[in-house]
Amino acid sequence: MNIKQFIKETEAEFIDVKYVDLHGFLRHVTFPVERFDAFSRNGFGIDGSSVPGFASVEYSDMRVIPDTSRFFIDPFSDVPVVVMFGDVYLAGEDKPFPHYPRYVLKKAVSVLRKKGIGDELLVLPELEFYIFRNVYYQHDKFISYYEIETHEDFLAPEKSYHGDVPFDPYHEFRLFVATILREIGISVKYTHHEGGKFSQHEIELDYSPAIEAADNILLSKLVINRSAVDFDLRTTFMPKPIPNEAGSGLHLHMMLVKNGGSVFYTSKRNEIISQIARWFIGGIMKHADALTAFTNPGTNSFKRLFTGFEAPKKITYSEANRSAAIRIPGYQKGRNVDIEYRPPDALMNPYLAVSAIIAAGIDGIVNRIDPGEPVKGNIDKIASIPELPSSLKEALESLDRDRGFLLSDGIFTEELIDRWIEIKNREYWEISTTPSVAEFEKYFGR
Q1: Which residues contact 348 (CB under 8 A, 6 or more apart)?
Q2: How does pLDDT run across 21-72, given as a tens digit for each residue?
Q3: What mean pLDDT value characterizes the chain?
Q4: How many CA atoms lie within 13 A of 35 on its CB side?
Q5: Helix count (H) and strand count (E) of the chain?
Q6: How many domains are contained in the chain?
Q7: Is residue 102 assigned to a domain?
Q8: Which of 36, 141, 189, 258 can pair with 204 through a Cys bridge, CB separation 3.0 to 4.6 Å?
Q9: Start-to-end C-alpha separation, the chain
Q10: With 0-12 CB in 10 A as exposed, 13-18 as middle and 19+ as buried, what is 68?
Q11: pLDDT per residue over 306-316, tens digit each?
Q12: How many Cβ atoms are within 10 Å of 94's Cβ, its own excluded?
């Protein structure tokens, strides 16, 4: 069904167009359906200088053109509103804004195809998050605190992972979210209580092409957070909201497909993945430090990666081992062989993060970077295995040094990388130079 038929059949009154800033934060503009024809041809204007990471005041005029390849009715609106994504273009020019994250990912997929490496990268995201009864926080020069209220402080750790009712009090909430996701065209693989004993949960989506998967990540976060309002709850995708408890990641299962099949599959006996898969992994491992600047772009990200709980900080790959950055799932999948990249968290801009992973994989395949044999045993105790950067500052320094693989095929630009490093460095120093409550507790009386 085309968009015109859909608008007519649903008796839609408004169109809501969503776009994303450099951080991965969704923004939107809503207009009456009568204006759709004009806006679909020419787009609508936005002030790029008011969108973080987009443009300076001198070059701020931009426009958003609706992408009518995907649309659905807003499930939370009492008025029929058609929702779709939009792409950002330069004002007065018939070309995309080169730093628009969604366009960057489109370029990455295009490079895969042009090089004959694959037709598509399919991505399956695992969204982990916490549900709290309420959260209070305040921060300024003279007051800084946070307080969390949870229903699950009684839950024993061994009853957390896949815990059933009554040890899973938010089962109905997850069912509500999964129902909404299905209504808007997002396929859910399953939901369950995660290992965090203070109400950590997971909703795992199904495979979809890279751009659609990135869209789905942002839409799923939106639906989860919006649903929490209806349930009078608070949800968070912070990688480490509670000290000394399990952190939340956004693991990405990936499958490079060509001619309808996974190119990661091998029919060779005693080999679990193809040579192309090994090269793809080799590229990711070579550039893992730089990738972390996109896949783990917050100071809180590193509190998850370096505090245990199966944190995937080791730059290696292994079969079925969750402490490795890259895991080859041990479940039998026949020809649908995939790999799982475990470091990412939901603070990432999924378009930029997946684009960077694709660029690293392409570099690995083109230059035949072999990662060696998968590591076995207790990975955490093997000192010779390198580890991911331990802070956002280190990750940004790695990106600054190792940016060539992002630039070689024009997926990223120098300006975009410089802008990302500048914005994230500013964020790092803002947080790292601010006294914390823990520091007051430890040092104030000395």
Answers
A1: 24, 250, 294, 295, 296, 297
A2: 999 999 999 999 999 999 998 899 998 888 988 876 456 889 999 999 999 9
A3: 93
A4: 14
A5: 13, 17
A6: 2
A7: no
A8: 189
A9: 70
A10: middle
A11: 877 778 999 99
A12: 6
pLDDT score, position 282 = 98
DSSP per-residue letters across 88-147: EEETTSSSB-TT-HHHHHHHHHHHHHHTTS-SEEEEEEEEEEEEESEEEEEESSS-EEEE
Joined tokens for residue 321 = 């081992």
Domain residues for the domain of 51 are 3-97
Same domain, 171 and 75: no
C-alpha distance from residue 164 to each of 172, 375, 423 (Å): 12, 34, 43
Both structure tokens of 46:
């936005």
Say if residue 315 is in the same domain as residue 396: yes
Same domain? 75 vs 130: no
381 with 235, same domain? Answer: yes
Find where tokens 């609508």 sit: 44
Same-domain status, 439 and 333: yes
pLDDT at 210: 98
CA distance 77 to 64: 23
In one-letter notation, the amino acid at residue 361 is: G
